[in-house]
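Fold these two proteins, one after the other.
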Amino acid sequence: MGLRDTIKNYFKSEILQDLTVQEANILAAAKGASNAKSKHLEYEAETMQAQTLKEWKQAIAMATDPEEPNRQYLEKLYKNLLLDNHLSSIIDSRILYCQRSPFKIVNEKGDDNEELSYLFERTWFEDFIKYTLMSRFQGATLIELFEVNKETLELLEADEIPASYFNAKKGIIIKTPGDTTGWPYKEGALQPYYIQVGKNKDLGMLAQMAPIVLAKKLGMGSWLDYVEKYGVPPLFITTDREDDTYFNKLLNAAKNFKGNGFMVGRGNDKFEVGQVGNGNPDNFDKLAVRCNDEMSKRVLGGSGLTDEKAYVGSSEIQFRLAKDRFESDKLLLKNVINQQLLPRLQKIHTAYSGLNGHYFEWDNSETETREGIREMITTLAPHFELDPEEVSQKTGFTILGQKENSTIPGPGKEDPNKKKSVTGK
């Protein structure tokens, strides 16, 4: 290396050290470079293998190892559990409730800032909500905030570091599962770009729900075995031919017709389809229903919201139980956003510098329906003077003025010609 290159590299390193995180991100975005660690992980092909209680015990033991915790097998177990449609659906209910809830960015006085709120009406923020709430189910979750839009300098996406690629106890991101060294994310240069939700030892709700989900999978598999063995009627073939050549032809024909459940005999050729077994499959179905109910109780607080035969009163009670969990999720999100997300956004992205002195809040103002507004106006109009502009704003109709022949409805008067009863009343 020549003297010129030495001097150039020296001043380059000195300049980079003086750059703020925001300025470094601007240069990286302009160059199109990405130092996101999620882009440098050595991912492995996913294999969908059957999981049993033995794998569950092994995964828990490895994930809770006091010296070198490894969540590789726990992650595989969780992915297998989430293949259950009922479990995924009730988890989505928890997540979608928060994703669809209105929010606002307010200042210290509580005034809403629509421009700042608009910055969070993005796909990356919905992903952030999902990853944060998934910590309830899968334990400690690591969220990456790195990719920036080159034009707007806004955050482009929020990504998740898989559980097998970070060690929460050591606070490092590892390149391959099982590594003992990696990139530290709780301190140093990477700290502003990563948010860990959940404590280091948290394994999530799925660790407790695994036995009931695996029991359902076993029951469904047994049901399929039952259908395969007894659900398809057998085929009977009889023939009076004695030569082996013809016999083998019938045998091959039967094999091509059905894989099993058939019989070949001698005598006149006769083909008969047997009767299906009269076993009762309700035992399998009841097991699946019971497992679904247990999962609903754990995630939503009850099975009334997922039971199609639930009564109205029971469903209302169940929704109140689920509402407690929804509100708890919203509180978790609010704390994570205000304590971790907003400070990081201000530090690493210039587009969010206006967030200083502001915080995230859920918009819990009641949404008024047109029917409710109409009833309210009908009730107040006979007794009070209403502001036409406010009424127009709420109803969406332009009020030009009051008609001269308009009358205010009052209490009805009794018709003097109305026929009286026999008692004279």
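Now the second one:
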Amino acid sequence: MERDCLIAHGAAANLHERLFTLSDSSQMHICGKCKNMANVIHRSVQGGKVRVLYCRFCESVKERVKVDVYMVQSYYARSSSAWAYLLSLTLRFASV
């Protein structure tokens, strides 16, 4: 039974590494308030050189989350926002 668990865990880790980590992993900022994927941009603060993350949809600068996604998913979110499709993502945080 323990051997089967170790084999299953190794297979899952290998699949994650081959299909996500080594293939096309990317990071994307998501608004924690409106859960929107594509509208988070960098914006300069008034009179300063500091750039903050800003959501154009809910006009908020708070609650930004950086998540690991597939490059195809981030590309799809950005290209579909050009056609006025709004993509949102449900965020679940696992305690470590």
